[in-house]
Amino acid sequence: MRLLLLGTEGCHLCEEAGEIVAACAPQFPIESVDIAEHPEWQPDYALKIPVLLEPESRRALCWPFDLPQAAHFLQQFGEAVSR
User: Fold this and answer.
1) What's residue 80's pLDDT?
2) Separation of CA 78 from chain center
3) pTM value?
């Protein structure tokens, strides 16, 4: 499974989202992706970044989210997540 954190360079909310995800699941591989480099995702997510996205199912957790919400989102994929 692959999870992406969609954001853009210089976005303080994207940095905060990355910290939240890292805090609730430090062992979970999350790939940070600059949405400016992916026009296919811009219509759906550009105005919602930061977005935690599972690209195959297109399940997404859009900002604003907190640690419990991120942990719940990650648990949907059957991964062990600590709070």
Assistant:
1) 42
2) 16
3) 0.87
